[in-house]
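Dear Dr. H.,

I hope your travels went smoothly. While you were away I took the liberty of generating a structure for the chain from your last submission, since the lab meeting agenda had it listed for discussion. I wanted you to have the full record in hand beforehand rather than looking at slides cold. The sequence, exactly as received, is reproduced here:
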Amino acid sequence: MTTLGILHPGSMGAAIAAEARCSGAEVLWCPIGRSATSRARAERYGLTPVRALSEMAERADIILSLCPPAVAEDVARDVAACSYARIYVDGNAVSPATMANISAILLRSGATVVDGSVIGSPPSDSKSPRFYLSGPAEALPAVARLFDGSAVQARALTGGVGQASALKLSYSSYQKASRALAAVAYALASDHGVEAELLDIAAGRTTSYLTETTYFPKVAARSWRWGPEMREAAHALEEAGLPSDLANAAAAVMERWSGLKDASPDLALVMEELHTGPHGDSS
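The corresponding predicted structure, in token form, is as follows:
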């Protein structure tokens, strides 16, 4: 039986870990410093607590990091400090350059590093995200086997560490920036009393985020994670010699929603925060 360590069981991490459990893996997690919400989530999904990260490093055949991108390198350093020397999968939304830094950190401790990216919503009875993997060819099958027969579609990419991260940010730089742009467009139309006409125009197109105003609060509540991801997308675009202005602008929009972390705001509050930001600063 494979033993998987998950860092950390957020909404995505816990759901991914649950799918690994269904395939027969034991899944460890470390409660130290985690919230009551994380603890409840880990218990609900049947994850096994360990006393310290060092215990996870001793027991886990594979450690999977699924955390906010802004702390991905710090999490990697914590694991490396435990002299972890088996398979480490970074599944975070980071740029290829950040992924290279993470790889270098773990390689010094003797770990085999796999670059991963999850594209889609957390797995459920109705949702089946793709989990792209790149890196050492000999390590990818062991990670993919964790999800055999599960709702997670593990897919290997050629080309080494950095490929999965590049794919993730190529997709999210459009998907998440366009969500933010749609909210800004709606806010402008609403200020002038023409939001109904804007939505009527958008509804005439095959698909448009502008018609999905009920999704704006979800974007706002997730922006504490999506904003840093957009900064990483900007880095990736810059590395490729491409304009990063839109990705950075999307991050700046999302930073105005930082006070709505994991909340359930209504549309009116989302529009208010978009105008003023979390501290009433409209600059």
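Two observations you may find useful: The chain has a mean pLDDT of 94. Strands lie at 3-7, 26-29, 48-49, 62-65, 87-90, 112-119, 130-134, 153-156.

With kind regards,
E. W.
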